[in-house]
């Protein structure tokens, strides 16, 4: 059985995807940027916004940050990444996932970070 979770994000309908897909005991959360009408210019505020959206998707899937096994962080400027480390370390706490950081272009030049995760469904 496959379950799809939508967050009604700006690009979900435009690009034909959903925020997360739950299948075979795992939840795959799509790349997530800052959400809302006003996109913060600060990379840490954008990281926080993305993590809040991801946290909501994980909760709807019956999971949480403690069940994340893989995270990919994508940034247009890799020099911004260390600014996000304290927030990411706090979010994952004693359960750090395997991680990859990629420097790349994002869909909108206002975005400074995009995060995707894969987690186990445990609840």
From TrEMBL:
InterPro entries reported for this sequence: RutC-like_sf (IPR035959), YjgF/YER057c/UK114 (IPR006175)
One Pfam family matching this protein: Ribonuc_L-PSP
Gene3D superfamilies cross-referenced by the UniProt entry: RutC-like (3.30.1330.40)
Name this polypeptide is given: RidA family protein
Lineage: Bacteria, Pseudomonadati, Pseudomonadota, Alphaproteobacteria, Rhodobacterales
């Amino acid at each position: 059985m496959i379950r799809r979770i939508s967050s009604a994000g700006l690009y979900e309908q435009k690009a034909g995807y959903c925020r997360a897909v739950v299948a075979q005991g795992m939840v795959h959360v799509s790349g997530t940027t800052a959400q809302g009408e006003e996109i913060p210019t600060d990379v840490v505020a954008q990281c926080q916004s993305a993590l809040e959206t991801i946290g909501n998707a994980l909760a709807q899937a019956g999971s949480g940050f403690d069940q994340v096994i893989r995270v990919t962080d994508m940034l247009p400027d890799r020099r911004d990444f260390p600014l996000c480390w304290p927030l990411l370390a706090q979010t994952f706490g004693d359960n750090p996932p395997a991680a990859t950081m990629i420097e790349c272009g994002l869909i909108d030049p206002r975005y400074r970070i995009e995060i995707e995760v894969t987690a186990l469904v445990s609840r």
